[in-house]
Amino acid sequence: MFYDREKELALLRTFVESEPNTIFFIYGPINSGKTTLLMEFSRRLSEDFVPFYINLRWHAISSPSDFLNILFSIHRGKKDVVKAIVEDLPGIIHGIPVPKALLREVIGNHENAFSYIIETLKKIRKSGKIPILILDELQKVEDLKINGPLLYELFNLLVGLTKELHLAHVFTITSDSLFIEKVYSEAMLHGRAEFFLVDDFDEDTAREFLEELGFKGEEIELVIRHFGGKPSYLTLASLHKDNLEEWCRGELDTRENWIKFKLNDLKRENGIIYREVIRILKSFMDSEFIKIEDVSPGIRWLVKQNILFLDPKKGILRPQGRLELLAIRRIVG
């Protein structure tokens, strides 16, 4: 369910109204509504734009060929691909269309695939339309290699599409803040990338959203006390109005127990990192975030487990949401 992201939508519109020049990395805590925002943004675009959405989230990607297969979709019509894209395909296009006869050649290697993308986007621009490329959960290709990391080959392509050729606007989406930290530190992207935080709702917006869902007074405060402005939990709460307090307590108990299990596993595997992790968690007893200057092994473990969220742009570390903050304080309090 989409709700009140007008400020973010306005910023995204500003980005695409200028010449393509930058890769935009959309990041934020888990379940903060990043994909929902980009989908709503794409639906609201004028006919001057052609948005391509590549969803890596639900695919098993163990090789470069897996990734190339996901990038493209088969065009079965008789009309020229670009003409079909510009004239016939409405709204968001899932995958970059390729004629069936060319598919094997295009996905045969990454150079053919990337060349096809560039030539197709050039033709779309020549038609007067502006392509937008959205890559969701880009971190899933982080460990793939083609004579070196595939990710760097992909970054070179995306820099070419934006900074050098000005062919397309590029947005990538990720909830993996370790990946964003790595990208943020990447020298080859300095001056070529922008980082756009999509956070949970603030409390005022969360209250308004819950009112829209039919909640009142103490119900609203109960939900916010447990989940803050996490959009996914606010929406889920509407399914549990009849046993709201019991459900809220149950979600907190479940999250607390899950974190305890993970901590116990870590304690058995690596006592040194475990002790560091406990020290970090105790920092949140009287604060909702801490400033950091380095990603230590303990921080890396907590972020990888989606217990904490790392914002490299602001240099802060905080729980993924209100639920995690409450669970942490129960565990180390």
UniProtKB/TrEMBL annotation:
Q: Which domain of life is it from?
A: Archaea
Please give one Gene Ontology molecular function term for this protein.
ATP binding
Which UniProt keywords are given for this protein, alphabetically ordered? ATP-binding, Nucleotide-binding
Start and end residues of each AAA+ ATPase domain: 20-185
Q: Does the keyword ATP-binding apply?
A: yes
What family does the entry list? Answer: Belongs to the archaeal ATPase family.
Q: What is this protein called?
A: AAA+ ATPase domain-containing protein
Q: Where does this protein come from, organism-wise?
A: Pyrococcus kukulkanii
* Biological classification of the source: Archaea, Methanobacteriati, Methanobacteriota, Thermococci, Thermococcales
